[in-house]
Amino acid sequence: MLKTLSRPFIPKSSGDFARLGVLLALAGLILFGALRYDNFISPFNILSFLRYNSMFALIALGMAFVIITGGIDLSVGGVAAMASVVAAYLSPYGWFPGLAGGMIAGLIAGSINGLIITRMRIQPFIATLAMMLAAYGTALLLANNQSVSVSYDTGFTTIGQDDFLGFPIPGWIAALAYVLGWIFLERHPAGRHVLAIGDGEATANLMGLKVEKTLFGVYALSGLLAGLAGVILASQFGAGQPTEGVGWELFAIASVVVGGTLLTGGSGSVGATLAGALLLAMVFNILNFENGLGWISLSAYWQSVIRGAFLLVVVVLQARLMKKTEA
Amino acid sequence: MTTIDTSAPGERAARLNMAQFLSRYGTFAAFILLLLFNLIVTPNFLSWQTLNVNLTQVATIVIVAVGMTLVIATGGIDLSVGSLMAIAGTAAPMIFMGKLLPIENMGILIILSFILPVLLVMAFGWFNGMLVTRFSIQPIIATLVLFIAGRGIAQVATNGNLQVFKNPEFQFIAMGRIAGIPAQVIIMIIVAVLAHCLIRYTVIGRQIIAVGGNEKAARLTGIPVRRVKTFVYIVSGALAGIAGLIVVARNSASDANLVGLGMELDAIAAVAVGGSLLSGGRANIIGTVLGAFVIQLVRYTLLANGVPDAAALIVKAGLIIIAVFIQQRAKG
Q1: Is B150 on the interface with A (CB under 8 A)?
Q2: CB distance from B299 to chain A under 8 Å?
Q3: What is B44-324's CATH topology?
């Protein structure tokens, strides 16, 4: 079932159809926005869209790897919140300690997930659910239940707020992560191992693949990326926020699924995950523009209803296509 | 994934016995230990007020966790319970405050505000069941849809506003007492007893266990697997709905943003601590009730002794991991 081996892109399987679908939907949504709203294609909207949504894209990337192995990581929102607090505390010492501190905090949380899953053999969804609680608990303890201001003197806020070559720095970070992620999954042996494990752990084991090490690495990576997202969060909004990140894991899972990655593992694509994340984020962007037009007034609460509906449509389609390919 | 156990056979058997012992009596032992600890350490623990606070707080966890036990017994999971609580808890005040139906008679409105919200979330439970059975979508993802969208529906219906009310008839479900016992505690007991009898003495109860134990074998022996699975999601929805009504009645207010928030975690934790395997095939209702009590007592113990709420979260996380670990060890 290593479907992603087939390239160039000719839809052959359900996953490929879904991937084609998400690209078409994204293109359609952009076209719709561009035709309907005056400033949709303005540099301001595009750049602030990318600046804000880079955090979610990073988390979705980590989630894609986890889901490809057949697992799930429900702790990313809590880990990002914890990392944002750690980064905020370290920001007076310079931008680098802030960045490194947040990422290390995420890495530690992810590694604990990995250990609990591989050593104690506890189902990923329970292990990471518990980590979500623990990470929020740690974040709130560290921050004394308040948000923690970052230092504005050390350049820490550059990470989230400034541009490099006219492009938001969070956008650069996310782009780089996705390029590395793509190379890793498609071109690196260890990336192929990730796919093989998702296809069947027992088989991968018999093939002599280092299943436990790879699984551990995948959860550690997801934690690291969640930590990075937390750093960007703190830097962009000027504060470490121990209660932020609620529902991020769902956004990430939805992005991955909308991107055509099968939740049963063994197949998936980094590029389509990015498209899925952008698609879900754009739903919200368009909603804002639509409200701006004044014809309708949909509250922000519609966001979750629409996201849920999106997820529903995609999983139902996926299930249908899966049945057809099996038949 | 296989590991080679290098320890001596005797040693391994001893470890297994220990795990089995903990699995069987661990929850009960933890419960007793927590009680003893509180009697010694927590000031004023032995009072009616403490009992009252703990019983009323644990009632909603137990009610939802019983439904979760049935779902988990079939090898599924229901992440949508918190959101369904919010939907029911939002719909009920809208009904008895006359916002939804053009009925003047308060008595009928009150009755409808109990029945309709629960029927509504039962329909959502049926929807979960359909996704799982007809479309073969994994339960985590199928119920994730309503986990995301369900609270959104409740928020959209109220535009995120708080509904404040004072309605003794409706609030009887949380404030009322029958023979001195809080009504919600009575509901909790009824729900737990019914579920226990369902699992022990009815055909569908045995079918639930069979489906979770080995779905293929269950199908081959003629068990209507789809119907059984849909049934547990509907029950889980209905119980979440009742819990939602209790929560808003207790608070005299309904906040769609908060009702049932995080309840899925508490319910899953209660099931895990209570000794049902999360992979299905077992439903220990008494264990789940005990599990819910342990979780409630841990929270109470920490808060009553000045440990911040945040630290209580970390303790709960550790508790879940240890409980699941022991269950798996005991299985062999």
Answers
A1: yes
A2: no
A3: ABC transporter involved in vitamin B12 uptake, BtuC (1.10.3470)
